[in-house]
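WP5 quarterly update. Target: phosphoglucomutase (alpha-D-glucose-1,6-bisphosphate-dependent). Source organism: Anisodus acutangulus. Length: 630 aa.
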Amino acid sequence: MAMESAFTLTRITTPSSLFCGSSSHYHLRSFSFSPKLSSFNYSLRTISSAPFIVTASSSSPSSPSTTVAESQGLKINSVQTKPIEGQKTGTSGLRKKVKVFMQENYLANWIQALFNSLPLEDYKNGLLVLGGDGRYFNREAAQIIIKIAAGNGVGKILVGKDGILSTPAVSAVIRKREANGGFIMSASHNPGGPEYDWGIKFNYSSGQPAPESITDKIYGNTLSISEIKIADIPDVDLSQLGVTKYGGFSVEVVDPVSDYLELMENVFDFSLIRSLVSRPDFRFVFDAMHAVTGAYAKPIFVDKLGANLESIANGVPLEDFGHGHPDPNLTYAEDLVNILYGENGPDFGAASDGDGDRNMILGRSFFVTPSDSVAIIAANAQDAIPYFQSGPKGLARSMPTSGSLDRVAQKLNLPFFEVPTGWKFFGNLMDAGKLSICGEESFGTGSDHIREKDGIWAVLAWLSILAYRNKDKKSGEKLVSVADVVKEHWATYGRNFFSRYDYEECESEGANNMIQYLRDLISKSKAGDKHGSYILDFADDFAYTDPVDGSVASKQGVRFVFSDGSRIIFRLSGTGSAGATVRIYIEQFEPNVSKHDMDAQIALKPLIDLALSVSKLKDFTGREKPTVIT
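Structure tokens (predicted):
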């Protein structure tokens, strides 16, 4: 990985507006989409000159080629800058509205602050990966990141064609290519387009999101930054596979699908899955939501597994996700839900989000909660998925996720961990060999094959389970359905009724005041306190001590846990780009099989009413009803 680089440093003493994305203007002259979903052809005509204008040209895919710059060295410009407020990095990187990132030096400051935060050995002359979900502003941002990386002495950038790489694929590529880390350009499940959201995060050498020790340093450096180091090189054509060299620095544009597909073929038995998906009596729909998994859906589900091309809905990634909200839940994936709940609906449906790390699983007229999904995958993994043929090493869930997975771990006699929300908390456990399968109630499911949650992995896991259960079924015989698998699981383990209420873009002051009120309330609470018909076991603000490195994460969610195991939990989410999202989680365990078919909202109504009463949510936020109910 280490490469020699020759650099010269030129200091510019006047402030520059080089990094103002709003100076990039272009008209779309032509656009075409190849049936090969990894190939996008476009032509841009520049109408104003600026250092970071994307000027890709239209051409059909060609064999990889190498272009060597005339100069064997790089001129590095040092651009003066000053701190910009509001760049504190959360669990999922930095997310803001696109117009914020397009402000002068906004993105550049953060990227330079990142390099200022890393030890030299973590990037100097090394290899970094770059990719994203295809949303608006990714093209301009990719050029900024490449030039600053070169300016800071990175040896090589490996980038997905057209800047496309799903979040799971970035993690997979980092691990396969033994890269030092990688940049992910995404705001995940949040909307895209000029008026909406953009985001950036950094993943480390094992493919996991950067730990808080690094994100805290990045924020600290954004408060004191004074210069940006940028290589004086032209924009790189990201539409063509191949290598471009500038002195000792190079950029390799790669197929975004190939490394990830190879990994999936090593994890799953594709011949087994194909035996189900290609059956004439099995119907399957995957909704890519015009997001990044559109680039992966056809190569995997159609070309490799034999699904019909018509099985892929919204399969073309678009910068604005087709004016949609790429969040795979019952509200924002309503079209898919209507198809599965329609008359004579398909046997299986699934969706993934903006950057491909979340998933929703549906059967015919049947929704699988994410909490149940990870538990069912864990319970069936050893039989149905070759990667787990020796059995999982351990299981883990985020604290708000229901206790379904706990019961599987107990029955299989496996180590079990309850961690704060945020996928990085699973990474340490995986690296230490303690964890194989994990999940979050926020539609995130995954395993230690990479260090991110993985939407397509979850879909393939479910198809593997269904294929395994139906492998001996002859044509014309009734197939084991999604609902059959779930109900059999409930009969074995009991059902954890679970629901989440999301109140999006609340006024931050009111939301924070509500959480503080709840913290004051739990400080005065004690075991035995009565809340209606519920008796309190304990109430706390969840804290976690990492069993691997001893690090402590506090204030991770206010919990009220009752004597029958029921729980209500309150959290503020950090995954949005504006305001605050209040999340309420409600859970109740039901061992009685005769009650398993109850609607969750009916079963949980007494707890839901208690949660709204205890929190005084309406008083603090003014909200009459949630934005999303899961």
